[in-house]
Design brief:
The complex is a heterodimer of chains A (290) and B (334). Chain A has twelve helices and two strands. Chain A is mainly alpha-helical and 290 residues long. Chain A has a two-stranded antiparallel ribbon with strand order 1-2. Helices cover 80% and strands 1% of the residues of chain B. Chain B is globular. Chain B is mainly α. In chain B, helix 1 runs antiparallel to helix 7, helix 2 runs parallel beside helix 7 and helix 3 packs across helix 12. In chain B, strands 1-2 form a two-stranded antiparallel ribbon. The chains are: A mainly alpha (290), B mainly alpha (334). At the A-B interface, helix 3, helix 4, helix 9 and helix 11 of A face helix 5, helix 12 and helix 16 of B.
């Protein structure tokens, strides 16, 4: 029973971070209708920002305030100079934008590899390996803090999208770009802001993950894969769905790792992905309607 | 006859190539080039003509390669049986996948192919008892010389291009294009889009699997990271298609040539140019540039993806008019 509870807790804590990764992805996907295959690489960039700041003695959680604006700007630049020009180009394949994000991801990974080599980097903090106990269940301090911050961001994002003018413009663009343009929304500007926001959110996830994970250039790929599994699970463009998707994936992974074996951890995500596509196309969004 | 003249001359020249130049290095590059012609034109049918972009060509490539390798290690038969069966294994994997996943459209289908490749890579890694896991499969090549492989690859490339030309000028070929242009309109005109997308996928899987089996025979070694590789196989296939020209018969052949050349250019540090310059001039900086360049082939790929998509979205063959115009204007300016 304890093993089960422990696995449950570990899965949910991990799921909080996954939700943060997923929300960034689902925003970009919902508004622009394209899949950002550089999402994990953006997170990797944020982790390196944290690492560099940490070598200067800045606490990882403080570097949130640096990494998020930095990645926001990176996202804005990518959307403005690399993705928006593609909309105008006359091509046969609309998937060019997706391929472009693949290219961006490759370039980001390789530039980091040049700057920092492929070595694994660690951020050492006093609390990285600390745990506290609640009954018989141990909680990792860093992961619990990360979970708390992730939930705070998620809730803030939800209210931002529902209550503010900018948030409503974003949702309007996601629902119908042409109609939004007719209603006076500057959709070109909205796509740029959305990509920036998505990048900043995944940057937050990267910073929160940095103290408990190791940092290396190739870490982007697996996290991009996780991000899109979460998004498919949750339903495209759905914030609430992304939270459910993130927690589900976190739970499934830790259950799989405990009861099936570590090597199955990655396959489980993909198996869920295929199952959802088969039996619940549209993801949790179809159940929650949000 | 006249319209087929240029390809025939090129095939003739390629057939004479090993007689003129018996250097193993260039033969190796040419074999890779011909293999990429096969993969690129297969990708071009499913993506360029049918409009179903595949990000998981490595899945079919790996199926073909593993068919050849597993037949040799488990049944002890010649890996050439893999050449006969590799394509069909890839089709056997591709058809159920397509039957399930063709209900998704556009980018979502592309993601599903990505997932297929990941699943197969993990399966090949985990099933150690059957596939050898990360250790991979090592076989003895059948021929000591590269020349037989060259002619096999050439025959495959010619066969794949001829079949592509035949397919795109046949009725299914027009159906494929109509699905790319407007799937709903195609459906309403009575085209069974699901069936024709599956046919297109089967064709692409078959040729990609054949190329995989050839790779196994020629290289003699595979492991899950080599054949189910996203960057080196799937993205390379897309680049070959896009650089050459999406939706053109000969585009991927041009693309394959350019991409293999670019890859080799980076891998060898511009054929040792910078290293040679560094050695001659005794400058440390140039030697360092050489060593950086040889590590930068993925970076070069990434930059190439970005540049090609921004400036030549329809590829060299597709945008040939644009290129010619730009060049002529340059001439007029001079």
């Amino acid at each position: 029973m304890d093993v089960f509870l422990q696995t449950l807790v570990a899965g949910i804590l991990k799921g909080g971070l996954y939700a943060l990764i997923g929300i960034g992805m689902t925003l970009i996907m919902g508004v622009m209708g394209i899949i950002n295959l550089a999402h994990g690489q953006l997170m990797m960039l944020a982790m390196y920002v944290t690492f560099v700041l940490n070598t200067m003695g800045v606490d990882p959680y403080v570097s949130l305030f640096v990494a998020m604006p930095t990645l926001f700007l990176v996202g804005v630049a990518i959307q403005k100079f690399l993705l928006n020009p593609l909309i105008k180009a006359e091509t046969i394949l609309p998937e060019n934008q997706v391929l472009m994000t693949v290219g961006i991801g490759m370039v980001a990974t390789e530039i980091i590899r040049f700057a920092f080599t492929s070595d694994y980097k660690y951020i050492t903090t006093s609390y990285a390996n600390q745990t506290f106990f609640f009954g018989n269940i141990s909680f990792s301090t860093a992961l619990t803090i990360a979970f708390g911050i992730a939930i705070a961001f998620t809730v803030a994002m939800f209210f931002f999208l529902v209550r503010t003018d900018l948030g409503r413009s974003i949702r309007a663009t996601a629902q119908d770009k042409d109609a939004a343009t007719l209603m006076g929304v500057n959709t070109a500007r909205i796509t740029v802001i959305t990509f920036g926001l998505g990048a900043a959110l995944v940057a937050a996830a990267g910073v929160l993950l940095a103290p408990v994970y190791y940092i290396f250039p190739d870490l982007g790929g697996p996290f991009t894969a996780k991000a899109f599994i979460i998004t498919i699970l949750g339903g495209l463009g759905s914030t609430v769905g992304a939270i459910f998707g993130g927690v589900t994936l976190g739970l499934a992974e830790s259950m799989g790792a405990t009861y099936l074996g570590m090597e199955y951890e990655d396959i489980i995500g993909l198996a869920i992905f295929v199952l959802v596509l088969l039996f619940l196309p549209g993801g949790f969004k179809r159940l929650t309607k949000v | 006859m006249k319209r087929n003249l240029a390809p025939l001359v090129i095939v003739g020249l390629l057939a004479a190539f090993p007689l003129a130049l018996q250097d193993n290095y260039y033969l190796h590059l040419m074999i890779l080039f011909l293999m990429w012609v096969v993969i690129g034109s297969a990708w071009n049918l499913i993506a360029g003509y049918t409009g179903q972009v595949s990000f998981g060509d490595a899945a079919f490539f790996g199926c073909g390669a593993y068919t050849a390798g597993l037949l040799a290690t488990h049944l002890g038969v010649s890996t050439w049986w893999g050449m006969a069966l590799g394509g069909f294994t890839a089709v056997a994997v591709g058809l159920p996948f397509g039957w399930i996943c063709f209900r998704m459209r556009g980018a979502y289908f592309a993601l599903a192919t990505l997932a297929l490749n990941e699943v197969l890579r993990h399966v090949a890694t985990i099933a150690e008892g059957f596939t050898g896991g990360m250790v991979g499969i090592l076989i003895m090549p059948s021929f000591p010389s590269k020349i037989p492989y060259y002619y096999i690859a050439l025959a495959m490339a010619v066969a794949s291009l001829a079949s592509l030309q035949w397919v795109v000028r046949s009725k299914p070929g027009y159906y494929f294009v109509s699905i790319r242009e407007d799937q709903d309109a195609a459906e309403s005109l009575g085209i069974d889009t699901h069936l024709y997308k599956m046919l297109s996928l089967a064709y692409a899987a078959f040729w990609t699997g054949m190329a995989g089996a050839l790779y196994m025979n020629y290289m003699g070694f595979i492991d899950p990271h080599v054949v189910f590789n996203l960057h080196d196989i799937s993205i390379m296939a897309i680049l070959v298609g896009i650089v050459g020209g999406v939706g053109t018969v000969y585009g991927p052949a041009v693309g394959a040539f350019v991409m293999v050349a670019v890859q080799e250019l980076f891998r060898s540090g511009f054929f040792g140019l910078f290293k040679w310059l560094g050695d001659v001039s005794g400058s440390d900086a140039l030697v360092r540039v050489a060593s950086v360049l040889t590590q930068a082939h993925v970076l070069g790929f990434g930059v190439l993806v970005v540049v090609v998509i921004l400036f030549l979205p329809n590829g060299i063959v597709g945008d040939w008019k644009k290129i010619r115009k730009a060049v002529f204007r340059l001439d007029a300016g001079n």
